[in-house]
Amino acid sequence: MTTLWRPELLSGESSSPGLLRNFVDGGFVETGTTFPKLGPVTGAHLFDVCEADEATVDAAVTAARTALNGPWGRMSEQERAAVLRDVADELERRFDDLVAAEVGDTGKSISQARTLDIPRGAANFRAFADFATTTPTESYTTVLPDGRRALNYAVRKPAGVVAIIVPWNLPLLLLTWKVAPALACGNAVVVKPSEETPASATVLAEAMAAAGVPPGVFNLVHGFGPASAGEFLTRHDGVDAITFTGESATGTAIAKAAADGVKAVSFELGGKNAGVVFADANLDAAIEGSVRSTFTNGGQVCLCTERLYVERPVYEEFCERLALRADALTFGWPSEESTVNMPLISRQHRDKVLGYYDLARTEGATVLAGGGVPSFGDARDNGCYVQPTVVTGLPPDARTTTEEIFGPICHVAPFDTEDEAFAQANNSPYGLAATVWTRDVGRAHRAGTALDVGLVWVNTWFLRDLRTPFGGTKLSGLGREGGTHSLDFYSELTNVCVELS
Ligand SMILES: NC(=O)c1ccc[n+]([C@@H]2O[C@H](COP(=O)([O-])OP(=O)(O)OC[C@H]3O[C@@H](n4cnc5c(N)ncnc54)[C@H](O)[C@@H]3O)[C@@H](O)[C@H]2O)c1
Ligand SMILES: O=C/C=C/C=C(\O)C(=O)O
């Protein structure tokens, strides 16, 4: 088993980097080229990662195709579901390794990894084992004008070889959100985690083998996007469907690659999510909820709020209290239970986010909290931290208030009427999620239809029921996953029409 715990997670003290390999046809394989994975807490060199070349990606796709024709393809839904439940058990057995992997790669706090990221890995497998074995397909009795009758019914079949490409912010959660339904529907998969977060996928590969998933059903290739494993995979003739989570611009590149083979695509993309706080809301809950929706995971969740609209009578109080809370969020080592803030994923991403902090000022913002980098006086000064930041005073067309930043920053603006609030929230090329804080039940339901987004949360944020449709409108995505929506993407439906005599 791969050792993922690294002492630098606790103290900044360096150890020698581990080696992370690709997983093809049931075994780990090295390639000639490696790239370094640096931890964002101290910049320490955590892993050397084997970059999959075109031949390795090809071997993975071929292994997946072969596996579809082997024992996996002949298993009943119930048998596959039993294997997936064993994978969930394995993930729970490897809980500490997964926490170490995720904390090392992302710098998120151990407490968040333990309560959010890692439990969802196992939960995803259990949920889709259940959905795939309990969801009915359509059936109609057809009566023709001449009195003949027919029975129509749909049969679910695997979509085939599915390519799964995911980002770095919630690595195991987002990977298993796609692997679990894909396998529950009988597909074979080739997954490519982000180059920034290769570690937890390694434990997942080991869990697959330990749970008896046949060789070739789950393959893992490491690397980058363009001219690397991502592009080799999305352009591969042997791939039938591509499911992708990441930036909208990457979605466009993948859509172009998918067009040639008319591959099915499912996209969960970027966001510039609004929070709307009405004066009738429970203000304490709205402030705490906005702290969570803005700063969780360093603001690096596609669902995070980057624009807040607050009804004028409570605007001043809201801004003041939100800024105080942002300043009070604790920095600490990821291993300390009290730690809330985490670093951004890389120096490159930190430069991008700090660029927006500067841009906000240039565009005329007032900075109420943060706006820079924290100083630790230890190895974390070599990491990728920024301060949680609250700004006000920008016009609706400022770049800071329209472009996805993907960091711990929000802009707060006042509004006077419900129509104005919803119009401002909708004034975005993105349409992923919105959060509304109100005690008016009519208004809460109106928000559901008025807001042009895939997900509306009322008096809460990121509360998930895995049966519900998940995805975005506009630049935020294509299609929905979750529950039966996932089953529809990861399977082909064949309609059978039998004339009844
Ligand atoms: N809507 C959602 O559910 C959701 C969830 C999480 C993150 N996101 C979005 O993800 C982004 C942050 O993640 P990121 O920076 O890793 O995104 P990214 O698009 O840069 O990378 C995502 C993945 O795509 C790969 N990739 C990049 N270019 C590719 C190409 N041309 N062909 C094939 N693969 C390619 C990367 O290597 C990585 O594995 C944000 O925009 C965020 O909003 C969306
Ligand atoms: O960063 C984006 C978070 C996405 C969350 C999910 O896909 C989920 O909870 O299933």
TrEMBL record:
Aldehyde dehydrogenase domain location: 33-496
Pfam (any one): Aldedh
Keywords (A to Z) from UniProt: NAD, Oxidoreductase
Molecular functions (GO terms): oxidoreductase activity, acting on the aldehyde or oxo group of donors, NAD or NADP as acceptor
Signal sequence bounds: none
Active-site residues from the entry: 268
Protein's UniProt keywords contain NAD: yes
The family this protein is said to belong to: Belongs to the aldehyde dehydrogenase family.
Protein name in UniProt: Aminomuconate-semialdehyde/2-hydroxymuconate-6-semialdehyde dehydrogenase
